[in-house]
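Example record for the data management plan.
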Amino acid sequence: MTIDKRRSNDRARLGPEVKPEDVALGAAVTAARVAVSLTRLALLPLRAVGKTPVAGSLGESAVQELASAGRAARVDGRAQVMATARSALAAPEMGELIEDAFAGPLPDAVVRGAFDDRVQRRIAAELDDEAVVVVIERVVDTNAFRVALERALTSPAIRAALAQQSMTFADELAELIRRRLARLESLVGRFIFAAPASYAGIVSRSAAFVTDLVLAQIVFLVGAGVVALIGSLIGDFGPSWGLRGAAAASWLIVLGLYFVFFWSLAGQTPGMRVVGLRVVHAGRAPGIPRSAVRYVALLAAIFPLLLGLVPILFDRRRRGLQDFVAGTTVLLDGEGDRAVDGA
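Corresponding structural encoding:
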């Protein structure tokens, strides 16, 4: 909306009503216009004389004096206006005027004008790309912006959102494996005795055990390679039954150290971590002695044709021979032992 159109709309809203103050103001404006016109008529002869060469040379000094007086009057006038404005702003009535202005329709009008599409287009037309970049750079370089940004990034809400979105590929892969195993577990569960869902079944326990065997085998191969390298430097050790027996015993020892370490430390091995299982005793991770007993019982359950693992299919707490001997239970991660909890 242009200024002329807005002025005409304001005049239309005033209506035809005659007010005394409007009459007085109109008379003052008309008198001022008449005075300006008479002054221009009176100065016409002086302007004509001033254009002659003689008057121009004679009046040059007078013009300079008048210009100097005009500049001094302009400076003094600005100083007086600034002093008057400062005194007006410092007056106690100014606070009341500001409160009255904010209590009225002014804030709503300002907000509506800011969101007006025409205002936005006018502002966008007046600002070029370089000006916008300069403004953004100045805002970013301020200390207040840095403090606000630091507070925002370190807030608990932002940290929770980042933690929720920071799932790695390994986490996604583990979650996919758990869903597949749970589906296969439910399929196998149709043909065996039912048990509460909090106890780990034969499928998930077998997957975790195979994963741990692979990891333990890698550890053993690395250690065996180091020993073989040292042996080749010391002397020639040919293959013999003694060395093969020692290698087999060493593999069982490495496997035992692997299981006992992780069982006693966190209640789950890396394979159990991937599948989502944990072994507990009385609601806690088993200690080192109990973990060692469980490992020995696990070997006893595996060697006679896996017969020691058959009770997992029929026991309501899905316990094998190693669990009966060590008093442990294998649960899904995040679940509780119903027998211990009294459920």
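Summary line stored alongside the record: Strands lie at 277-280, 329-332.
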